[in-house]
Write a structure and sequence with these properties.
Length: 126
């Protein structure tokens, strides 16, 4: 069974940093895409960043460019999201997602991703 689990959320002050981790398992595809999404109460789910596992493509939504960095550790099969200079508007539930094909051609769209974690809460205090 494919399983996706994320962790690392918490409460931080504005300007602080957090690093989220995602540990997918059970994927059997040779090339997959991984992504981070976020959703605040009452808002639509927003694609934050994505990375092609075996390719070179990385994409970010404009609002996090220069502050967030997506990366992967292929040996550990782990995905990361380093979040710096956090703002109150970054407050949301953050989700890790996986696609069984390469789908990181632009800022991630939810319909491209089939496997989802349960989310980890990030709260940034002003």
């Amino acid at each position: 069974q494919v399983q996706v689990e994320e962790s690392g959320g918490g409460l931080v002050q504005a300007g602080g940093s957090l690093r989220l981790s995602c540990t997918p398992s059970g994927l059997t595809f040779d090339d997959v895409a991984m992504a981070w999404f976020r959703q605040a109460p009452g808002n639509q789910r927003e694609g934050v960043a994505c990375i092609s596992w075996s390719g070179e493509t990385i994409e970010y939504v404009d609002s996090v460019k220069g502050r967030f960095t997506i990366s992967k550790d292929s040996a550990k099969l782990t995905l990361y999201l380093q979040m710096n200079a956090l703002k109150p508007e970054d407050t949301a539930m953050y989700y890790c997602a996986a696609a069984g094909f390469s789908s990181c051609r632009y800022a991630p769209i939810a319909t491209d991703y089939a496997y989802w974690g349960q989310g980890t809460q990030v709260t940034v205090a002003s």
